[in-house]
Write a structure and sequence with these properties.
Order of helices and strands: HHHHH
Number of domains: 1
CATH architecture: Up-down Bundle
Distance between the termini: 17 Å
Shape: elongated
Low-confidence stretches: none
CATH class: Mainly Alpha
Structural class: mainly alpha
Mean pLDDT: 91
C-alpha cells in the first residue's frame, strides 16, 4: 500500500473515533447537568475538528491521497473535487455545532448533530469508493 493511502487510512480511523465521541457526548443525559454536558460536547466537537483537519491535510496536501489518485486515475477528478468541497461543508458544520452547543437547548444540539454525523458517514463512503475505484483497495478494511 502506498504512503498517502496508508496515511489516509490512519486519519480515517482517527476521524471515525472522534465522530463516535461526538455521538456519545451529545447522546449523554443532560438533565440536571447541562454545564457538564456542554463541556463534554464542546471537547468532543473540538477533537472532531482537529481530526477533520488532519484528514484534510492527509488527503489534500500536494503529496497527499488526492494528488496520488489524480496521478493514478485522472478520470476520478470529479469525485476528488466533490470530496474537497465536502471538506469545507463538514468543517463549517462542525463549527456551527460548536457554536450551538455553547448556548442552544441540548435537545436542539442533539437534533442538529444527527444530520452532520450522517453527512460524515456519506463522505466516508464516497472516500472509500474513490480509493476502491483508484486502487481496487478497500480502505475501510479494519474499521
Amino acid at each position: 500500500m502506498t504512503g498517502p493511502l496508508e496515511q489516509a487510512r490512519r486519519r480515517r480511523r482517527g476521524l471515525q473515533a472522534a465522530l463516535v465521541a461526538v455521538e456519545d457526548a451529545v447522546a449523554a443525559p443532560w438533565s440536571g447537568r447541562e454545564a457538564d454536558w456542554r463541556t463534554r460536547v464542546d471537547a468532543a466537537l473540538g477533537e472532531a475538528e482537529a481530526a477533520l483537519a488532519a484528514h484534510v491535510a492527509a488527503t489534500e496536501s500536494p503529496d497527499g491521497l488526492f494528488a496520488e489518485v489524480m496521478e493514478q486515475a485522472p478520470r476520478l477528478a470529479h469525485a476528488v473535487e466533490k470530496l474537497r468541497a465536502e471538506h469545507v461543508t463538514l468543517r463549517e458544520a462542525l463549527a456551527e455545532l460548536r457554536r450551538l452547543a455553547a448556548a442552544a437547548p441540548p435537545d436542539e444540539v442533539y437534533e442538529r448533530t444527527l444530520p452532520v454525523l450522517g453527512a460524515f458517514s456519506q463522505h466516508r463512503h464516497r472516500g472509500a469508493e474513490l480509493v476502491y475505484d483508484a486502487y481496487n483497495v478497500d480502505i475501510s478494511t479494519g474499521d
